[in-house]
Amino acid sequence: MTAAKEENPLVNILINVLLPTVILSKLSKEGDALYQLGPTWAMVAALALPLGYGIWHWLKHRTLNIFSAVGMGAILLTGLITIYLWYNENAKPHVAWIFGIKEAVQPLILGSLFLITRRSTSPLFRTFIYNDAIFDIKRIEKTVAEKNAISEYDGLIWKCTLYFFGSFCLSAVLNLGLAHYFLGDLSPNIENWKEEYNGIVGSITLWGFLAIGVPMMVVACYILYMMINGLEKLTGLDKEALLLPR
């Protein structure tokens, strides 16, 4: 039986980040050209692309990746907030706060899931970093048990989980700041407000991806170092014994 083909991360980034950014930034203008969709249809197309991909992926694989699920929820929330802002004049002056809070919520939910699932049968930290595709967990846990160092072992995993949660908290702050930076000067009285809003949302989508991805990758590399260093001290095994051969 062949293993299921893994999702290509480049395709994921293309569909969920780059194409929506291009659509919102370049196709939101009103006009007679085919590519000038106008702000409403550009927003619909930008949201439909990642949402449709997420639904297709679930129907094909019948598995729902937790990150994809939160991302799809964020897409739907973006659509609802956009409708609210477009048709509620009283909300337009507060657009930076409204959209910024939405942008901050996504990484906070993702980070909280690392804490919530800690005691479950499938902790998210073990799925994402400390898993049997990288570490020889059976050998590690056997050695930890033999050395009676289970509490120290659990403490190391908990410490690394907290560090990872911290990276998402940092991303939430950065996302809130990005929303204020890009949307803070958007005047509610300009004639092409929807068009300008779409273009800014496209920029926030791109920079928001970096605001989540960069801290997470930096912290993930540091956590990997912490795990290897900590496990070497706990078990007495060297790095070659802790990690599976690549």
From TrEMBL:
Which sequence ranges are marked TM in the entry?
9-28, 40-59, 66-87, 93-116, 162-184, 204-225
> Which UniProt keywords are listed?
Membrane, Transmembrane, Transmembrane helix
Domain of life of the organism encoding this protein: Bacteria
Name of this protein? VC0807 family protein
